[in-house]
Fold each of these.
Amino acid sequence: MGCISTKPTKHTPGYEDPKVLAAVTTFTVSEVEALYELYKKLGFLIIKDGLIHKEEFQLALFRNSKKQNLFADRVFDLFDVKHNGVIEFGEFVRSLSIFHPDAPEEDKIAFAFRLYDLRQTGYIERDEVLSSSTEASYRRLHWSNVIWSSSQAAPAYLKEMVLALLNESDLFLSDEVVEQIVDKTFSEADSKGDGIIDLDEWKEFVKRNPSLLRNMTLPYLKDITLAFPSFVMNSEVKDEDMTI
């Protein structure tokens, strides 16, 4: 009898074993496998090399690969942990895990802090808080649409970043109103009065203003396997096999 050979599965560059990713994130093995299907769709939208480039990331978030949005740039930078200009599969899953409904609140708070720490100094300065003061009104990054339909920013650009966020929310405020929001937000958050907001101050500020974390949770991530049901049936590893 002849031997039956099976063709090895070809994965995208930077692929990581779903079992490994499930062990270090909030996702189950089936959910990671479903996310891989989503990842492949995004990775072949424009460049078609199986990796998510910034243009593809912006197309997924805003349905426009050429639309300049500093907020999207910042989120991309945080997802791109290796800082090599692309989001690999492992980075994609680990970063999205923070937005899972079951992810620890501490992780969400820390990610949000890094999001607004534009110059990566370990604290938020007054100019940088412009973005955090408008975050509560920003929509949910369009990730729900993505799932179901399959660098640092210099202070000079912060006003543009705020206006972009407000525009996404269909809110149009005058410069004076924006400045008032910034002043009020910073005065409330900077409890030490030293002109900066450190991580501890940020945690306390978020506790008093939980709406700042509203966009850090994407309920659709709990139902990711419903978007790609074939993986639930064909998964090589059962989720219960991962329990200890």
Amino acid sequence: MQAHTKKRLTKAKVANVIWRGAHYAVPFAIIEKYKIASNDTDASTIDEVFSDLFKQYGKQGVLLKGLRHKEGLSQIDLAEMLDITQSNLSAMENGRRSIGKEIAKRIEKKFGLDYRLFL
């Protein structure tokens, strides 16, 4: 009678995927199911997808508001971190006030983002 042995695991071919800052090892067989042809005409750029928001609030305002939401901060919390008033922050997020180089550099210092994104 033969003894039962463990089946050796074979190394699966995996791709390293980074999504929202987290790293994943996803088998190629799974990725192939979701592959999109590179000449797909349904693909859109970020500018196309968010064009209405960019027109309404300005690209920098949308980026600032997105950063605030990503970090889970209220307007008051972020305003205190940047040493500005909440009403000024609101005006920046809504495109009524420009962010300015000094405040953009404060954002860079606090969050490690290039300040030029906000100019």
